[in-house]
């Protein structure tokens, strides 16, 4: 996971990226396009799962509900690649 200089990720964005990486969602992405795919995932999540990100940032606990929502977000995004 790389963060751009002067543009750190929020706790929720880091959680999303780590969840996607740890659960194999990036496995089918060409290694030269992983950074681009991660940026796309973050953008997708901000647009479609903004409430989830706000919830995780407010209370950074990985509840069963949050984990299910992270999985759904990743499945939706990676199905478009």
Give an overview in words.
It is a single chain. The protein is 63% helix and 0% strand. It is built from four helices and no strands. Helix 2 packs across helix 3 and helix 2 crosses helix 4.
Radius of gyration: 12 Å
Class derived from helix and strand content: mainly alpha
Percent helix:
55-70%
Shape: globular
On the 0 to 100 scale, the average pLDDT is 93
Percent of residues in β-strands: under 5%
- N→C terminal distance: 19 Å
Order of helices and strands: HHHH
Low-confidence stretches: none
What does the main sheet amount to? Answer: none
Number of DSSP-assigned strands: 0
The number of helices is 4
Brief account:
This protein is mainly alpha-helical and 81 residues long. It has helices at 11-22, 34-48, 50-58, 64-78.
Task: Map the helices and strands.
Layout (H helix, E strand, L loop, with lengths): L10 H12 L11 H15 L1 H9 L5 H15 L3
Which short descriptors sum up this protein?
single chain; 81 residues; mainly alpha; 4 helices; 0% strand; globular
